[in-house]
């Protein structure tokens, strides 16, 4: 890319916004020029706005420290400074829908980490290795919005990233019934142990709305484009429990699968290792070289040892074995705020730029 695209971060002071800013430091295609947040933070330098609540382990990038935070609700003013925006705003679902559409209508593409538009029929919800063809609905969305370059694209929920890639790699064996339990990190709630001391040595067997997302969103990812909208897949049917565990970063999934065409363990491992998609083919800046790694050791993957695989953009799978009730079971691990949130959105934006959907204004 000859000239870097100018990027804005909506909701740039929150945990996911901070992760966006960290990941985009020295990005070869994108440059953060604008950070927008609530009226409370607007008018302060970014360094001042996040003082005492910077949650990343790396320091605030020098390039953004002195940027003056803009008011995210001043849509026209913010949009005039950027080529596209990442959205990580903390609002109600209806407010998010409205503000993301408002930005899109200023002819500013919106790549969102939020869940508000994940079921809007003409908004693509994409894991770039799995369903980049869903970007085709963008042209239909633009007609609805009355735009020529403005649109919304979203990435799916963080909890599904640790098992959906593996199941996708095995689609030729026709998985039709899946039982999942996810063990989810506290950063998924925007928290650290300092913010949430009651999570130390604790487990909470409930995460609001998460089980429905974990059961339904994979079916939309596996769906097909038909008549300008995404039609969700019927199978595999998934049932899920989601549990909050005392881990900072990393969502683990324990998964049981039934297949119509029963594979061997060796075939399953071979398919994981061979699986790749558009990001690997195009060698996008944030793409993991090896999307899915299979770990032979009985005690892997582990959060501490494996969550940062491929800079947090890869998926780790282990413990594939035959089951007495289902055909096979396995354990998956993904980084919930990198692949599962900001990093997944950055990879979506890279894919959109490579396909010509995002360009300089």
TrEMBL record:
This is Aspartate-semialdehyde dehydrogenase. GO terms for molecular function: aspartate-semialdehyde dehydrogenase activity; NAD binding; NADP binding; protein dimerization activity. The active site is at residues 158, 251. The keyword NADP applies. InterPro entries: ASADH-related, Asp_semi-ald_DH_pep-lack, NAD(P)-bd_dom_sf, Semialdehyde_DH_NAD-bd, Semialdhyde_DH_dimer_dom. Pfam families: Semialdhyde_dh, Semialdhyde_dhC. NCBIfam families: asd_EA, PRK08664.1. It comes from the Bacteria. Its EC number is 1.2.1.11. It comes from Aminipila luticellarii. Belongs to the aspartate-semialdehyde dehydrogenase family. The keyword Transcription regulation does not apply. SUPFAM superfamilies: Glyceraldehyde-3-phosphate dehydrogenase-like, C-terminal domain, NAD(P)-binding Rossmann-fold domains. GO terms for biological process: methionine biosynthetic process; threonine biosynthetic process. Residues 6-138 form the Semialdehyde dehydrogenase NAD-binding domain. The gene is asd. Keywords: NADP, Oxidoreductase.
């Amino acid at each position: 890319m000859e000239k870097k695209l100018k990027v804005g971060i909506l909701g740039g002071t929150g945990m996911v916004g901070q992760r966006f800013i960290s990941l985009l430091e020295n990005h070869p295609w994108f440059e953060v020029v604008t950070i927008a947040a609530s009226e409370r933070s607007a008018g302060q330098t970014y360094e001042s706005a996040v003082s005492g609540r910077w949650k990343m382990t790396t320091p605030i990038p020098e390039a953004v420290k002195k940027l003056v935070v803009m008011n995210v609700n001043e849509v026209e003013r913010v949009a005039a400074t950027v080529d596209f925006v990442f959205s990580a705003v903390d609002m109600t679902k209806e407010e998010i829908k409205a503000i993301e559409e408002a930005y899109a209508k200023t002819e500013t593409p919106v790549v969102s980490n939020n869940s508000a538009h994940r079921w809007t029929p003409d908004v693509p919800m994409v894991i770039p290795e799995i369903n980049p063809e869903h970007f085709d609905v963008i042209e239909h969305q633009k007609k609805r919005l009355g735009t020529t370059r403005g649109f919304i694209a979203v990435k799916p929920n963080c909890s599904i990233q640790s098992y959906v890639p593996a199941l996708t790699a095995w689609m030729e064996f026709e998985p039709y019934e899946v039982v999942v339990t996810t063990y989810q990190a506290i950063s998924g709630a925007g928290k650290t142990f300092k913010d949430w001391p009651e999570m130390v040595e604790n487990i909470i067997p409930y995460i609001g709305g998460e089980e429905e997302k974990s059961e339904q969103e994979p079916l939309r990812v596996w769906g097909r484009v038909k008549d300008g909208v995404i039609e969700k897949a019927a199978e595999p049917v998934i049932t899920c429990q989601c549990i909050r565990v005392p881990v900072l970063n990393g969502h683990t999934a324990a998964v049981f699968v039934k297949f119509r065409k029963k594979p061997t363990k060796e075939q399953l491992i071979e398919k994981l290792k061979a699986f790749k998609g558009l990001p690997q083919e195009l060698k996008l800046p944030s793409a993991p070289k090896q999307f899915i790694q299979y770990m032979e050791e009985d005690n892997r993957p582990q959060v501490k040892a494996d969550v940062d695989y491929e800079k947090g953009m890869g998926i780790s799978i282990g413990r594939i074995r035959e089951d007495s009730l289902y055909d096979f079971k396995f354990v998956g691990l993904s980084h919930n705020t990198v692949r599962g949130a900001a990093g997944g959105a950055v990879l979506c934006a890279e894919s959109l730029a490579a396909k010509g959907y995002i360009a300089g204004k």
